[in-house]
Amino acid sequence: MPASASCDDRSYAHNEIKLLLISWLPYTPSMPGHLHRYQQRGDYHFVTFSCYGRRPLLEDERMCILFEDVLERLRRRHEFCVFGYVLMPEHVHLLISEPKTLSLSKVVGALKTDLSKHRRSDEFRFWEKRYYDFNVFTQAKHTEKLRYLHRNPVRRGLVVNPEEWLWSSFYHYLTGEIGRVEIESHWTVNRRSLGL
Description:
The protein has helices at about 15-25, 60-80, 105-115, 140-155, 170-175, 185-195; strands spanning about 45-50, 80-85, 90-95, 130-135. By secondary structure, the protein is an alpha+beta fold.
């Protein structure tokens, strides 16, 4: 994304039409068969996808590093913002903006495909075919989803504190440290405004 580009100017104004379109969908614990995606509307998206059979294929540090590198390459190429992410042993959560040059579903597909190329030889498939996408169009929901993904490793008992989990954006929010993936945060906005 060009240094002058920014995702922080997004308005979180309440949009009744979007709420009506999305709020009526019932909750189902598994992936619904007739999933409707609301994309290319300028919303942010909370995206979740799982390893095949919920196997812990992301326990491998090499795959986590590769995931972050591929995510950053796609972020730059397709001009979208990453507000937060967490890599769990068997699934991924992303909070991202809509890409400018490609649809969100194509970017998720490219991310999954690039990582699949590096799977172990004994694995038939790396990812489940589908992904979950939740439109985020209020500041309150943005904060809720960001907290959810950062606290996921703690809830699962993998670490005591979120900053102990290496594979998330939490440490960036805590310290402002630049990692493998550029996180769109107040730290990033401040650096950009200073021309850094």
